[in-house]
Amino acid sequence: MNDRNVDFDELEKIFDYYHDGYQCAQVMLLYALEALEKEDPDLIRAAGGLNSGISEYRSVCGCLSGGACLLSYFAGKGSAQETVHPEYKEMAAELYDWFREFNEDTGGSVICTDLLGNDFTQRARVCPILISHTLQKCLEILERRGLI
After folding, report:
1. Domains contained in the chain, number
2. Residues in contact with 128: Cβ distance below 8 Å, sequence separation at least 6, in sequence order
3. Burial class of residue 147 in the structure, from the number of CB atoms within 10 Å of its CB (0-12 exposed, 13-18 middle, 19+ buried)
4. Which residues pair with 60 in a beta bridge?
5. What is the mean pLDDT of residues 128-148?
6. In contact, 50 and 112? CB cutoff 8 Å
7. 81 is in which domain, residue-wise?
8. 47-73: b or e for each residue (b if 16 or more CB lie within 10 Å)?
9. Is residue 3 domain-resident?
């Protein structure tokens, strides 16, 4: 994983969420809800299905899928009266492309187990930093479009 600076207050909060039993995708959405001063246990529970590469099935990293959910939380369709933000697909593509580039040392993989070196015991070392960077990228994408 790329070495980039992280916000240590943010990293501490991520570790607190992990200590409380949350994982990557859930943490991404907990940040969104906290910023909006909301709680939605049903949303957080549902996001748990995306953790650990879809419950350790060696699939897409929960940081990336949680990040896509975070973007959609602000730009997606939530009711019959709403429409998807016209740039949502571009936003999701930007996140995906960034994520692959950020993880160039693993061949640009988006697969959870690849990012962990096929060792789930590495979660505490790898995931919080990856969450922090992915969260910052999502916020940047949303800010540029005036959605937050």
Report:
1. 1
2. 11, 14, 15, 18
3. middle
4. 111
5. 95
6. no
7. 8-144
8. bbebbbbbeeeebbbbbbbbbbbbbbb
9. no
